[in-house]
Amino acid sequence: MAKFVESRRRFLKSLIPVVAGIVGLGKFLSPRLPTGTAQVSVPVADVPIRGALVLPGEGIAVTQLEGGRFTALDLTCTHLGCRVRADEKGFTCPCHGSRFDSRGRVLTGPAAAPLHRLEAGIRDGVVHITGNRRA
Fold first, then answer.
1. Structurally, how many domains does the chain consist of?
2. Which of 18, 23, 61, 122 could serve as a FRET partner for 90 with CA atoms 20 to 30 Å apart?
3. CB-CB neighbours of 107 under 10 Å
4. In angstroms, rounded to a whole number, what is the distance separating the alpha carbons of residues 4 and 63?
5. CA–CA separation, 75 and 83 (whole Å)
6. Residues 95 and 125 occupy one common structural domain
């Protein structure tokens, strides 16, 4: 009986790191959900034509498309939540290589969903950005 109790204790002790690892892995692999509201304003003149103005502290990029239209994108990759980087062709995820165009659409995976778009409206020469951000 004593041998059984000791082996049971040893078994239960060995389960602790396994359970902790599963919980940690689940946190890492779960998709990130919207976690906050963005309210940012930038002058229209600061956003390059056919380019992106990255707001690093906000995790947002504002792009000026053809015809003076603006879009705001959350820079969180939709694959596993890494922060994408702006480049001359759009955005690239440094973690797994997903590529997005200047509108946030997926060019190459592994990401399957486009970058999350935020509301971008122009008033008095200023782009006002609102919406839910991702973690």
1. 2
2. 122
3. 13
4. 66
5. 6
6. yes
pLDDT in tens, 71-111: 899 999 999 889 999 988 899 999 999 999 988 999 998 99
The answer to whether the pTM exceeds 0.70 is no
- In this structure, are 16 and 51 located in the same domain? no
Residue-level pLDDT at 19 = 55
- State the residue for tokens 């602790």: 16
Given CA atoms 97, 103, 107, 113 in this order, what sign does their dihedral have? positive
Compute the distance between CA of residue 35 and CA of residue 19 in angstroms, rounded to an integer.
27
Residues constituting the chain: 135
94: containing domain:
34-134
* DSSP per-residue codes, 64-105: E-GGG-EEEEE-B-TTT-PBPEEETTEEE-TTT--EE-TTS-
Please answer whether residues 40 and 58 qualify as being in contact, where contact means their C-beta atoms are separated by less than 8 angstroms.
yes
